[in-house]
Amino acid sequence: MDDRPVPTSRKPWLPLWVTLALLLGLGALIVWQWQVFEQREREQSQQRFEQEAQDIGQRVKNRMHVYEMALRGVSGLMTGSDHVSLTEWDRALDQLQLQDRYPGTLALVWSRYLRAEQLDAFLAAQQSQGRADYQLSPVGAREHYLLIDYISPLDWRNRRVLGYDMLSEAVRSAAVEQAIDSGQAILSAPVTLRQEIEANVQGGAAVPAGVPAWHAAE
Q: Per the UniProt record, which residue ranges are transmembrane (predicted)?
């Protein structure tokens, strides 16, 4: 029988350190892979977001161009004649099929520019034509006026804005001046519609769009 002692390793901790080193290396590799994956996912998400934003922006731009063409078509009707009657206006807007073809549109208006000395004669003419509900709003003496003359659809809500002076309110006035200066279609800052009343508020703000128009004589 061999009674010699069995030799033992002088470094019994070495396998443990090797195992720990492997685990640490594997953990570091997993963390690195996770960070790479997260970075790639963020980049792809950002690219998808930017692409979707561009697509939405282009769709909005295309839609606004369609609306602008409708505005310019109505403008051509109004400036191409010395006088467009309310009946002719209604017939033209019925053919336009505003709310079916241009979703989101609450109303289309034609506003008339007047100097202070023209106001009384214009209001008297509206009354003589049977437009008893046509009144200046807000009442007051000003140098210039831009009164809503026609509006479509002429329902009970929109009827309340006939005679409203768009130059009497800062946001609308700024948009009108921008359109006149540029000669281009413009969008104003969001506004609360004059049609709204506390008992029948449709909710949210509206963004009016408009194009400037002049008669040749003007």
A: 12-32
